[in-house]
Amino acid sequence: MITTLHIKNIGIIEEITIDLNKGLNVLTGETGAGKTLMIDALLVLSGGRFSKEMIRKGESNSFVEANIYLPEHPQAIDGNIIVSREINNMGRNLCKINGRMVTVNELKDFMANIIEIHGQNDNQALLDSQYHLAYLDGFIGEQLTGQKEYNACYDAYCKIEKQLKENYGDEKERERKLDLLRYQYEEIKEAKLKSDEEDELEAQRKIMLNSEKIAENLKQTDIQLGEHAIDSISASIRALEKIENLDAKYEKTTSDLKNIYYELQEISREISARRDEIDFNDEQRNQIEERLDIIHNLKRKYGNTIPEILAYKQELKEEINHIENLETYTNKLKEEKNQIVEKMQSLANQMHDIRIKKAGELSEKINKELEDLEMKNAKINVKVDKQETFSKNGIDTVTFYIKTNLGEDEKQLSKIASGGEISRTMLGIKTVLADTDKVPILIFDEIDTGISGKTANSVAQKLHQISDKHQILCISHLPNIAAVADENYFIGKTVTNDRTNTHIKKLNEDEILQEIARISSGEVNEITLKYAQELRNKKVS
């Protein structure tokens, strides 16, 4: 439910904040005080169209924000969702859901499942035939046997359809695809790649590019070791051998130095061998460069690393095998599809029969409600028609038709012209669907147009009835409706400095009686107050 609604700079509304409650909230007030602007603001908040003329004169922007308490909603934070929309006089929109910016279409889609507005300027789901199937199915509930099984079949059906469409087109296209795949596979295969060879080749190339420098320094090292270090250590060993028998420490030093001598000899031999390795010929250089070129070319085409290229090669092999055996694969898919279609058709026919039966029951229930609302000549007809193609809900299309007067042809619900007729028809439908309708907030404007007496009582009772399952906001001029409200609000206007401002007030019980008396006859006196008390005493509990 909406717990708080804040409106700023819309029409004559400068800035108001209203705290709403669950159940039936009725808004009454002076003519031209801004009651319809409240509905306009909620339409704007629901992603509806906005005219720059709606911005309060002299202001640059309009702003609407609502705190909506929906504890079970996945986007709720601590049970609350904050929705806002700001529009400036340049037409720029700023829409937010819980502080996150969204587009107007995203806002509209989000709010379509939360608020439904019934009145002369609305575009509610009940008038849109694409929602009618969902309303009928909601009314049927668990009696719509086969739906879950059908949905599973439909998902499998769509998956197979997608796979069949992705089967590379006609024969020529498949051959072209095969030629390309085979070329790519052979190109990688002929390269005979090894996972770690690129690093080895790059290391060799680095040495090759620096071979002169390496050779020169190895030569210098070899000379220094062979002609200086080793000879010097050899002379030192011979000198120490002459005294090693005089003291154990000299003997140890001699031994240590001999070990160093042998290690240096080994190092010198290794360096000499490496000098020989550095001597690359042109053929070796070309081989390394050519091999690296092949690897770099394959990386450019098929992957960033050799392991990626080899993985792609395996994918190519599998795809080639798939296409070469495509006829067998396709025939298998078609066989599976035929089996699923047969089962879907059976389930869809079963659902169609149930819908046909329940559509008649729904029509009867709604027409009974319309009679109570003094629309005795109005007849709703919920039509179920078969379509040729499968959809996620079966093979049915559902459309609500209505005939409002005797002798007229029935027409689609969306063709109703009168705002009052629309609202009362919607009220009748909502009364029947109250337990299954998942839209939590319903707003009624002009529902009392052209009605009084018994009809007014019926409308009031229906509103109070569906307010058990939904939060209702109703703009009304009827005392009968105001009398059954759970909460009453008065919308008035004041003029300050030649500017008209809207204000809103939640009424206490005494103020409610006075307001019922005022709207019942235009005067507040002992007689009208007594009448107001009688209406209030009859409030549906």
Largest sheet: 6 strands, antiparallel
Tally of extended strands? 15
Percentage of residues assigned to helices: 40-55%
What average pLDDT do the residues reach? Answer: 85
Span between termini: 20 Å
The Rg value, from CA coordinates, equals 43 Å
Major β-sheet strand ordering: 2-1-4-5-6-7
Instruction: Give the overall shape, derived from the CA principal axes.
Output: elongated
Number of helices: 16
**Structural class by SSE content:** alpha/beta
Give the amount of beta strand, in percent: 15-25%
* Poorly predicted runs: none
Describe this structure in words.
- Helices cover 53% and strands 19% of the residues.
- By secondary structure, it is of the alpha/beta class.
- It has a domain at 171-324.
- The strands form 3 sheets. It has a 6-stranded antiparallel β-sheet. The protein has a 6-stranded mixed β-sheet with strand order 8-12-13-3-14-15, sandwiched between helices.
- It is elongated and about 140 Å long.
- The model has no long low-confidence stretch (mean pLDDT 85).
